[in-house]
Amino acid sequence: MLYRFRIALFFFIGLLICPFHSEGQSAGNKNTIDSLKAGLEHAKADTAKVNILIQLSSLLNRKDSADKLRYAMEALELSKSINWREGVINADNNLGTINEEWSDKRSIALEYFQKGLVEAQKLGDTIWLAISYHDIANVYDFYLADYSKALDNYKHALVFETKPINRMSILANIGLIYYNLGDYQHALENYENSIKVLDRCMKSEKECNPNDSITLAVIELKTGEIYVAVSQYNKALASFETVLRINSIFRNAQIAELAFIDMGETYRLKKEPVKALNYYEEGLGWARRGKQKDIEGEILDHEANIYLEMDSVDRARELEQRSLKIIEGIVKKDEVSPQSMQLAKDYSTMGKIYNRTKDYPRSVKYLQDAITICKKVGALENEKDAWMTLSDSYEKMGQAQKSLVAYRNYISTRDSLYNLDKAKELTRMLMQSDFDRKQAEDSLKQANEKKLLGYELQKQRLYTFGGFAGVVLMVLLSFFVFRSYRQEKQTNVIISRHSEQISSEKEKSDTLLLNILPVEVANELKEKGSVKAQAFEHVTVMFTDFVNFTSAGERMGAQQLVDELDACFVAFDGIIEKYQIEKIKTVGDAYLAVSGLPHENPDHAVDILKAAMDIIDFVDKRRVEKGDSTFEVRIGIHSGSAIAGIVGVKKFAYDIWGDTVNTAARMEQKSEAGKINITQTTYELVKGRFLCSYRGEIEAKNKGKLKMYFVDGPLLG
């Protein structure tokens, strides 16, 4: 997919459908600015001066940032001095917009937008409430990547926004957030609602607005891509055909390229290669007419892959060489640019082609280059595929060791993709449960407020009547109160059921979160939205590794190898859970765990040795059962201090680092099959509880000579 152009088009839409800020429309209009400056000198009313100051600030170019800020601050101070709340809101909003332009001032922009929101709430101005919520959401969405807060503010903006074109913008942005999180159902709902709003706007206009049509086309494109993602190819094609019909009037080259390529990709997935090639050719024509060389190269790569799937290897190689020549003319392999992703794809495809023609050395060279670029740009999906083909090329060259290393990297990259998907699902579930909880709380609060108000009115009315009429009225009111009570009970039942659903969803999200993070860390993340790294003075780190993994991989098929690895790690998980040890991660066939965090544990070294001995026992018994169809394990352990916390933003993971971790890894490397190798430090902590054999001082990489011990078993009694 044409990722770079998709981003560009969506920013273009943002300019079209977010008409809150006028910066750029009249920037540089010297005559207008001069007129405003003259008007400022002669303005009698302070409110008029505020409006002129804000207009001046908005019209000045970014290069005049000092003057922009000066005019904006003058407007704010003047508004405060005359206690003009609308002026304060407008000035705060303007200052937020100015600071939003600078990457290092986004947090300042957010503060100004939030100040404006507070003033709008006090004033009860629904127009400014809509604008403020929308601006806050955009900062969280486009700049801070805090999708939970972005979604919350977008939904608040929808409550107050009345202009259809602005509602369409908000719905489209909500859809894009859900799309990025992989929640295609909610993304589709919001895109479809956005299209309905835009369609009504277009029908109400006397003349067709080209900008509206382009906006509609792009939203239809995203809708089609969702249908592709959920394998509803016919619906996807219908969306793409709608795009082409819209674009037939305005003939926007970028829209045409996207639509034809998306249709080609859809037909490829439908296993209709001839139709796919026809649509790719259409897109190629548009790319050439628009002199979009990078797009031309990408389409040629798509076509090459189809011919490769059709076993037309010579035609595939011809097309891929043309693609590669174009892309290499734009970007070098040691650079990082928007075209680097396509260069990686070209190298990967060439690697596949030469693998198919049995020219394995060339295949290896191209695949290695592809993997290097993928690592730079974070293209996990492409990296995963390249590792798989590289493993196959090495195997056919008779280089079993390199083949196995490549396959292990394939497994590791595949696991990273799985963890990324799991993190997205976790984020989506947390966001949805938080939003549902807020809705339920708001509903309950409103219901209680109405109920209390009703009771107060009833009391006041009762006190105004006397005698028989008052009694009759009391009876009647009692009836209505009783009926209201019954209705309230029914309402509470509904709210209760809704709360149960929310609790169920929250339970699911909590379970998913605890699969990734320790309990305390998960709670901190939910409460604060972030987790601080924490130092632990006394922990013990354990590394395990399968020493005969290479030879086992040569004897077993790929699936059998992975199944056996999974069975062993599942057993390891159960063992460390038994001793309340924290699993950190697996890397290929290595397993990392630590005792003594996130809770301090005075027996951290003893507990991890117990777990290590249980792991040795499990592997020994499995060897008896399965023979050479399983592995042998070696274990290394070291005690000391470590730092733990969440690393990363999108693909977050709880990890530990420090010299203790590195030393434990060296202990594992210097261990032997069926043995537990520990340092002098760990030995001092467990020598009264375990029998250990001194091995002497042994050279460890980057550590020099270290005293090491094999653990023989627990001391009796």
Structure description:
With 717 residues, this protein is of the alpha+beta class. It contains 27 helices and eight strands. The protein has helices at 3-17, 30-42, 46-59, 65-81, 85-100, 106-123, 126-143, 147-160, 164-180, 184-204, 210-229, 233-250, 253-269, 273-289, 293-309, 313-328, 340-356, 360-377, 380-396, 400-463, 467-514, 519-528, 549-555, 558-578, 604-626, 659-669, 680-686; strands at 534-546, 582-587, 590-595, 633-647, 653-657, 676-679, 690-700, 704-714. Helix 3 packs antiparallel against helix 4 (65-81), helix 17 packs parallel to helix 19 (380-396) and helix 20 runs antiparallel to helix 21 (467-514). The chain is globular, with a radius of gyration of 33 Å.
Radius of gyration: 33 Å
Helix content: over 70%
Give the integer mean of the pLDDT values.
Answer: 77
Give the N-to-C terminal Cα separation. 67 Å
- Quaternary assembly: single chain
What form results from the Cα inertia axes? globular
Keywords:
single chain, 717 residues, alpha+beta, 8-stranded mixed sheet, 27 helices, 8 strands, 71% helix, disordered N terminus
Quick recap of the structure?
The chain is built from 27 helices and eight strands. The chain has helices spanning 3-17, 30-42, 46-59, 65-81, 85-100, 106-123, 126-143, 147-160, 164-180, 184-204, 210-229, 233-250, 253-269, 273-289, 293-309, 313-328, 340-356, 360-377, 380-396, 400-463, 467-514, 519-528, 549-555, 558-578, 604-626, 659-669, 680-686, and strands spanning 534-546, 582-587, 590-595, 633-647, 653-657, 676-679, 690-700, 704-714.
